[in-house]
Design a protein that fits this description.
elongated; mainly alpha; two-stranded antiparallel ribbon; 7 helices; 138 residues
């Protein structure tokens, strides 16, 4: 919930269409500007800050819900399917320090690393089984 002071501050932003103690509605201009920056791969926190809002006041859940709905409304069904398709998994960089990333970016990178490492473990298991089988045949 927004405090009275936060509501007053949010109302000052020209991109705010309406705000109550539980919700905020944005203007079409905000949605267009947000979408343009989002398509440029700018982090959500930076987009929100660039457009004059405090990310921590809006909150991660509210921003996440906003971008979910924006993507749903701006992407065609084919684009939504394509963007949710599994991507080729590449080797994650070694010794990645996740403490200096935004939480959403760190989670995404950790998830990719976990998937990669699981695949690597499965590969090593199969390789080990092949070596055991070869040794027993000799």
């Amino acid at each position: 919930m927004f405090t009275k002071e936060q509501i007053d501050e949010l109302r000052l932003n020209p991109y705010t269409y309406n705000v109550s103690n539980t919700t905020i509605k944005f203007t079409e201009e905000f949605k267009d500007a947000f979408w343009r920056l989002y398509l440029q791969d700018m982090p959500l926190r930076d987009i929100v800050r660039t457009l004059g809002y405090d990310y921590d006041v809006l909150g991660e859940k509210r921003v996440g819900g906003f971008i979910y709905n924006l993507r749903k409304n701006r992407l065609t069904p084919e684009q939504r399917v394509a963007s949710s398709s599994p991507q080729r998994i590449t080797r994650p960089p070694a010794n990645t320090d996740y403490t200096h990333m935004y939480a959403s970016e760190a989670i995404k990178n950790m998830s990719a690393e976990l998937t990669y490492l699981r695949q690597e473990v499965e590969f090593l298991k199969k390789l080990s089984q092949l070596e055991i089988k070869k040794d027993s045949e000799d």
